[in-house]
Design brief:
- The chain is α/β, with parallel strands linked by helices and 353 residues long.
- It has 2 domains: 6-251, TIM Barrel; 255-325.
- Helices cover 44% and strands 15% of the residues.
- The protein is built from 15 helices and 13 strands.
- Strands 3, 4, 5, 6, 7, 8, 9, 10 and 11 form a 9-stranded parallel β-sheet that branches.
- Helix 12 (256-273) packs antiparallel against helix 13 and helix 12 runs antiparallel to helix 15.
- The structure holds flavin mononucleotide.
- The site of flavin mononucleotide has 26 residues, from helix 10.
Length: 353
């Protein structure tokens, strides 16, 4: 089972489960959905450009917005200039974040030129960045990395050791290479190797789709905490399910009534927030979230036809009313398996981050 808690210096994370940063997904509204459902010990922002922050770019600063109930929360930064990364980290600290994280994983072409997984090919520069950021902030400093650039250059252990030696205080490992993108399987053996090599907490990430996977990754790698990405968007209850599984050995699945409640509350908040991309965001979320819902494809179709946030909300309400009318099971069922069509979810994600 996953540990009940872990420490990043004086920061206690309870339970030992972290929401992975996901560009375009883990904004403040989504993070608060996750926090509200319970079971997630640490939230993270999506990756944020250090250049944008230090230029005070309005759009970039929006990524750093969070609400008081999101603590503890980490801001993730990317960039390749030690001094700019240090300045941005200081701004993040002043903004009230509990920790700052450096992204060493983003595979996107635009990003690898100026940080992300591109830094895994230049460990001298990486060391300079670590040192500059470390001396700029007092809050805990963490990193999130991929295994390496390609299969011939797996550097996760080397980078984790380097990071520890200059004062980085936790490392999250997504054990795929940059060239792999999101294909193939995450190689959890690399997480185990990093855990063997360093004394700072190691957070295991990659392909955890259900509580049983979280228990397996903890057992196989001895990691101090788990990090969940894509599965949180298809099943935001996964964190509370992990707690239930840890405590009782089984866990409940959400019912249509739970899904209805969550979807309409989340969509109302998106609408209220008056985001320029509100409809796009609603459509994107509907696509992930409705897999496993009876007749989910019908909901996806009607949501995709909607043109305004009000039309999306209306489609959601009508869909769940119809479901209730035909007598879809309203009570929670105890089952230990996620619906089978969750298995193919991953194909629907963009390869950002
Ligand atoms: C849509 C999307 C956006 C992502 N954005 C980021 C990001 O901003 N920063 C980051 O470190 N990783 C990012 N990632 C990678 C995830 O944090 C995580 O490492 C990866 O999805 C593997 O975990 P999972 O199998 O639990 O999804 C992103 C992944 C996806 C699917």
């Amino acid at each position: 089972m996953i540990p009940a808690q872990f420490q990043i210096r004086d920061l206690t994370i309870r339970p030992a489960a972290v929401l992975a940063p996901m560009a375009g997904v883990t904004d403040t509204l989504f993070r608060r959905v996750i926090r509200g459902l319970g079971g997630c010990g640490l939230l993270m922002t999506e990756f944020t450009s250090s250049e944008g922050i230090t230029r005070n770019a309005k759009k970039t600063l929006r990524y750093l917005f969070f609400q008081p109930d999101e603590h503890p929360i980490t801001a993730q930064l990317f960039g390749a200039s030690p001094s700019v990364m240090a300045d941005a980290a200081k701004m993040v600290e002043d903004h009230g974040f509990d920790a700052v994280d450096i992204n060493l994983g983003c595979p996107a072409k635009k990003v690898v030129k100026c940080g992300g997984s591109g830094l895994l090919r230049d460990l001298d520069l990486l060391e300079q960045i670590f040192r500059a950021v470390r001396s700029a902030v007092r809050i805990p400093l963490t990193i999130k990395l991929r295994a390496g650039w390609d299969e011939k250059s797996i550097v996760a252990v080397e980078v984790a050791k380097l990071a520890e030696s200059v004062g980085v205080e936790a490392v999250a490992v997504h054990p795929r290479t940059r060239l792999q993108g999101y294909s193939g399987q995450a190689d959890w053996k690399i997480i185990a190797a990093v855990k063997e090599a360093v004394s700072i907490p190691v957070i295991g990430n990659g392909d955890i789709q259900k509580p049983e996977d979280a228990a397996r990754i903890a057992e196989q790698t001895n990691c101090d905490a788990v990090m969940i990405g894509r599965a949180a968007a298809t099943n935001p209850w996964i964190f509370s399910q992990m707690v239930e599984f840890r405590e009782t050995g089984s866990y409940r699945q959400p019912t249509d009534a739970h899904r209805h409640q969550l979807l309409s509350r989340y969509y109302k908040e998106i609408k209220l927030a008056d985001q320029p991309d509100a409809v796009g965001k609603m459509k994107q979320f509907a696509c992930w979230f409705t897999h496993g819902v009876g007749n989910g494809s019908e909901l996806r179709r009607t949501v995709h036809e909607a043109r305004t946030p009000a039309e999306v909300l209306d489609a959601v309400e009508r869909f769940f009313e119809r479901q209730a009318a035909v007598g879809i099971e309203p009570d929670a069922v105890l089952r230990n398996e996620v619906p089978s069509d969750h298995a193919n979810e991953h194909a629907t994600f963009e390869t950002a981050g």
